[in-house]
Amino acid sequence: MSSVCEQPGLHSIEQATAALVQLLARPTQSHRLPLHRAAGQVLAGDVYARHDVPLWDNSAMDGYALNTADLPATGGRLPLAGCQAAGDAIRSLPAGHCLQIFTGAALPPGANCVVPQEDCQPDAGGVTFGSVRTGQNIRRQGEESRSGQLLLSKGTRLRAQEVGLLASQGYAEVEVTRALRIGIISSGNELRDPGSPLEPGQIFDSNGHLLASLLQGWGLEVHQYPRLRDDLTDTLQLLTRAAAEQDILISSGGVSVGEADYLKTAVGQLGRINLWRVAIQPGKPLAFGMVGSIPWIGLPGNPGASLITTLIIARPALLAAQGQAHTSAQVLPVTADFQWQKTSTRTRYLQARLQACDGRLTAQLHPQQSSAMLANCCWADGMVVIPAQHSIQQGDSVPFITYQALLSAH
């Protein structure tokens, strides 16, 4: 059933991302979660305000509530009629008097102004005021939201502030999309689990742990399968099992030219390969397709390349597959504190660190840009993006994507 894409050359990053978004697109399932577990989840539908916020006019300050008509323009003294605290029953303001009031307390009917306590001179039976202004220090009913107003849109990834907003409207539960189940498969005879003894020619499996950490941070449910040996029968069996248990499969290794081709061969036998080889550096061997009815993403084996292709191409598709509306990471213009003359036919992603210099952000490159490394990625704040066939001169403006933005699901 193999139907490897016939397009000659390399696929652009934009083509690959769009194709992967389409491959992963399918109706999302949803469930209700209590609000205290909703952070990081994606709203399955629009949410509307249940009531006005604030529910009533209230004080923005600790001070004194009064009616400005009871004072001359230059101020004066008013007798004190009592106190209004947050949570108290709402009391009316007697004409010609003032009420002590605290932040958040309901504005007494008849009052049209709150004067901060530091601008007042209280005495035994009253308070002396300077000049006052109608409407000052009052939070008006509904100034934040009105009952029935759209509060949050479908596809919103809930942060702490959205959770707090939902709580302010009395929501105890919220309908969110179900986390997708992702099966992670590391491929290669040379791989061993961290903590195991290494024989000559063996290395620890870093990609499996790297990918699990990334995907869990994006709200996905992760299952790591046993390491896949370079054997076609084993590969077919593991892919068949994983496809029956997961929503999406992600493997690392076994997709480059010259590698033992059991993984791509097995995917082709069980389904199809939709796309292979992308104009990105590092990460050219990226592939994806279907194992039966389950999408499969094949990442390069080099850890740096695996990280970059996941962040740049897989991330937006995986977030969209969860129903998230906004999936792009912000790109910042920064000043190059380096020269780069190695033009390439592929878009380059270079590990870089930001520094503030004379009021602007500059990017410095790590001296080693090997895709086999992760130490340079740990050193970096993010990546400078160099389009194909471009060189960079010192002082040029270059696009920069922070790891903070890419590692976040927001």
From TrEMBL:
Annotated metabolic or biological route of this protein: Cofactor biosynthesis; molybdopterin biosynthesis
EC number: 2.10.1.1
Pfam family, one: MoCF_biosynth
Gene3D superfamilies to which the protein is assigned, alphabetical: MoaB/Mog-like domain, MoeA, C-terminal, domain IV, Molybdopterin biosynthesis moea protein, domain 2, Molybdopterin biosynthesis moea protein, domain 3
Signal peptide start-end: none
Sequence ranges assigned to domain MoaB/Mog in this UniProt record: 183-320
Gene Ontology BP annotations: Mo-molybdopterin cofactor biosynthetic process
GO CC term, one of those recorded: cytosol
Top EC class of this enzyme: transferase
Cofactor(s) recorded in Swiss-Prot or TrEMBL: Mg(2+)
Keywords: Magnesium, Metal-binding, Molybdenum, Molybdenum cofactor biosynthesis, Transferase
Matching CDD domains: MoeA
UniProt catalytic activity: adenylyl-molybdopterin + molybdate = Mo-molybdopterin + AMP + H(+)
A molecular function GO annotation: molybdopterin molybdotransferase activity
Domain of life: Bacteria
Role description: Catalyzes the insertion of molybdate into adenylated molybdopterin with the concomitant release of AMP.
Family as reported in the entry's similarity comment: Belongs to the MoeA family.
Name of the protein described by the UniProt record: Molybdopterin molybdenumtransferase
Protein source organism: Pseudomonas saudimassiliensis
